Amino acid sequence: MTTTLYERLGGAPGIAALVDDVIAAHLVNPVVKTRFENIKDLQHAKRMAREFFCAGSGGPEAYTGRDMLAAHKGMNISEQEYLAVMDDIVGAMEKHGLDTDTRNDVLGAAMQPLQQTNHQHKTKGVNNDNGNHISRSSGWCSVG
Predict the structure, then answer these.
(1) 94-106 residue pLDDT tens
(2) Is the pLDDT score of 129 beyond 70?
(3) What is the C-alpha to C-alpha distance for residues 14 and 5, in angstroms, rounded to an integer?
(4) Which position among 12, 51, 82, 136 has the lowest Cβ density within 10 Å, counted as fewest Cβ atoms?
């Protein structure tokens, strides 16, 4: 029997721990820390991220937040900031011992709404700060 991405992430508790580690990484990442320090309600942002990843990974939770374009409108996120955030996500997944397929599936789930809205980061592939190649095709992202 095949397990869902939601199950591979440990369900809601695993995703909550992953989101907490991602946000903690953002708060010390010099490229994006100021953006995250200035969030007025960090607990709400965490809840939205948890919902997003739970719903996007096949869990029963509903995502009640705004779509990615609306949520990030006017933020003028640079490519460097985008890569820093993705790098923090990859780092948190590695910390949690998630295998490559699971990491790629998570990044795909995170990338799909951004591709659909044509939000930003229009390159086909770049190397992030950890030397991982992040590439997109058909809305999916892979690390390796």
Answers:
(1) 999 999 999 999 8
(2) no
(3) 11
(4) 12
